[in-house]
Amino acid sequence: MEATTKRIDATLLQSNQNNLVRIIGKCESYDANHQQAILISNGSIKLDLSSAAAASDGSNGNGTLQVNKNYEIIGKVSHNPSDLKVHVYSIVELTDNLNLKAAEKLVQYTYKVPELFYQEA
């Protein structure tokens, strides 16, 4: 993807409406029938997996998630403030030994010191 993706967590959903984002978190629930999931990343984030399932080439498990597994998600935050969710484009399974507190700190530092994380065009 050529577009820059901001690294966020649940606390930053509101301020990133309609933006392409990157989220690290743990899957709390997964509903295969409705292609929806809940990811925990410093709070709960609703995921709409219908785009990931349609775009899947098989490399990410056809857009499926497993409860209690860690993932990095790339997607677009909805622009509806009354129903904030992330429309998922890409799913990468991460190690079970992931330190979620460190991931939260990473998000904080990307906003405190953005010049370390984002290149200007």
UniProtKB/TrEMBL annotation:
Domain of life, per lineage: Eukaryota
Alphabetized InterPro entries for the sequence: NA-bd_OB-fold, Rfa2
Subcellular location: Nucleus
Main location: nucleus
GO biological process: DNA recombination; DNA repair; DNA replication
Any one of the GO CC terms: nuclear lumen
Presence of the UniProt keyword tRNA processing in the record: no
GO molecular function: DNA binding
Keywords recorded for this protein, A-Z: Nucleus
Entry's family note: Belongs to the replication factor A protein 3 family.
Name of the protein: Replication factor A protein 3
Organism from which the protein derives: Candida parapsilosis (strain CDC 317 / ATCC MYA-4646)
